[in-house]
Design goal:
Blueprint lengths: L2 H14 L8 H13 L12 H20 L1
Helix pairs in contact: 1-2, 1-3
Length: 70
């Protein structure tokens, strides 16, 4: 699975776990859709607002943690 799909999957999981602030949930859903469809790359998310950047960084950290446990 490519990085965009991994990040989208993890962001969706974080939404399900209430780890994403409600104020950015709709934006995160749209970002996930764009990542999965290939319309957006993870590197493009660094220019988003700080809450989005923080959520993406947290998702990537969670992915790294899961990968290091395997």
């Amino acid at each position: 699975m490519n990085q965009e799909k991994l990040v989208a999957k993890e962001l969706n999981q974080m939404i399900n776990e209430d780890k994403i602030p409600l104020s950015i949930t709709e934006d995160v859903h749209e970002i996930c859709r764009s990542l999965i469809s290939g319309e957006m790359k993870v590197s493009e998310l660094q220019d988003k607002d700080s809450f989005i950047v923080s959520a993406v960084q947290q998702a990537m950290s969670r992915i790294d943690t899961k990968n290091s446990q395997n």
